[in-house]
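Lay summary. Proteins are chains of building blocks that fold into shapes, and those shapes determine what they do. In this project we predict the shape from the chain. Here is one chain we studied, written as its sequence of building blocks.
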Amino acid sequence: MDFKGLIVYRKALEVYTQLTTRVLTIDGLDKDLKNQLRRAMMSIVLNIAEGSSRFSAADRRNFLVISRGSAFECSAVLDLVAISTAKHFPDLDMLLVEVSKMLYKMIDTLNEKQRSKGG
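And here is the predicted shape, written in a compact code that computers can read:
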């Protein structure tokens, strides 16, 4: 599977692992907040994988856009975690920024391909 060789995919797995072990294990963290974070962090990884299977640049781009939105969502959840627990994770936020920037570059490259084809 080609997506497994993508640096952004490996970074997304790192995000998933770090959030799972460091945030989802916080005692007393709101159940709904945990569920929202779990869905968003899985969405980053899964949409990178699913998008890589698509044949058209437009389809691939759409999945990457969703993945990037999920990275932003994870960052927002970390803000809510900080408010409710006083635990801060600036290193995880930076990792999410890194993933977001990589996804943005991939999206921009696919946009360029579409523009060069006239579509």
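What the prediction tells us: The radius of gyration is 15 Å.
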